[in-house]
Amino acid sequence: MYPNQLENLIFALQRLPGVGAKTAERYAFTILDWDAEKRKDLIASLNGIDQIQHCEICGNLSSGKICSICENHNRNQNIICVVSYPKDIVAIENMQSYEGVYHVLNGLINTSKGILPDMLNINALLKRINEETEEVILAVDPTIEGETTALYLEKLLQGHVKVSKLAHGIPVGGHLDYADARTLAKAFEGRSSNEK
Amino acid sequence: MYPNQLENLIFALQRLPGVGAKTAERYAFTILDWDAEKRKDLIASLNGIDQIQHCEICGNLSSGKICSICENHNRNQNIICVVSYPKDIVAIENMQSYEGVYHVLNGLINTSKGILPDMLNINALLKRINEETEEVILAVDPTIEGETTALYLEKLLQGHVKVSKLAHGIPVGGHLDYADARTLAKAFEGRSSNEK
Predict the structure, then answer these.
(1) Does the ipTM exceed 0.90?
(2) What's the CATH code of the domain at B72?
(3) Could A8 and B52 be called an inter-chain contact, meaning their C-beta atoms sit closer than 8 Å?
(4) Structural domains counted in chain B
(5) Pair (A136, A119) in one structural domain
(6) pLDDT tens per residue, range A78-137
């Protein structure tokens, strides 16, 4: 119905997550209305993606061989926070209080999908840990895959380094009655007391 | 936080309609995970957009100077359906029963936004209408802008050619109690009777 070129664009845009025919059409018409400058921007940024690589130390996304966090000597290189994906780093950095470095697994153990430990960025983690390493913080999602991965890493690192996990509980600003039973149980388990 | 190249892509994707920071990030990560082939497809289709032009006869989007509908001699070139945007043609073609041709205004009169009749593709419409033209069907949205445009065209074409408008009423498969008062009023106005 539409000119071939437009159909091609609509088809290519439908590969984005959650984008169906109608949304892709809407995006395509918007792009069609853009001036040449905006279109060039998008094309240039798509081409730029090719230059992104994984940091050789921590596995985070990086413009160069070493990412900006690993390169930053103001950060405590002896505290390593293990996350599953680069996105998680952004969430933790937004706290503006963590001063250690990261290690990105780029996945989680998922035996049903055939994702085994040796497919994750774990060997590089073992190589990084030395006598100076103070702590490894496991900051993986509290899902089945996340817990499996955390358990695996805990066993692997046991006796070599101090390993800690993030606290579970009720989100700040959340409501008790909206919390699911497991979250509530974790919140009770991890309760803190003002001992007399 | 992310490598520059990724930030640039997230920024460029946020220009799409209804796409905020989170969605753009999700799109960007998906694109990052794509193999080179898929990324090339998207870039090629974005480049292809430059070749799309407006049909010299009807104003529809077209790969060449004349669109595929105007070029099709099996269609009745003497019945012209006036629509506001190329998208509307797709909706009408999906009926698979209209055999005339189209004329795309590429907009609707909107005085508050400064869109005046001379900014629309109206002159080309007047040039197309000749003694052989049987009917001009105004198929514009039943919005204020649409009705204003329809009224303007009706007056302009009065005495030159037969002008008709689409019927208003309750959508097929719709429910009476969900119809708004104006639609219902139009449905009553346009009721058909089986005269005895």
Answers:
(1) no
(2) 3.40.1360.10
(3) no
(4) 2
(5) yes
(6) 999 999 999 889 888 888 889 999 999 999 999 999 999 999 999 999 999 999 999 999
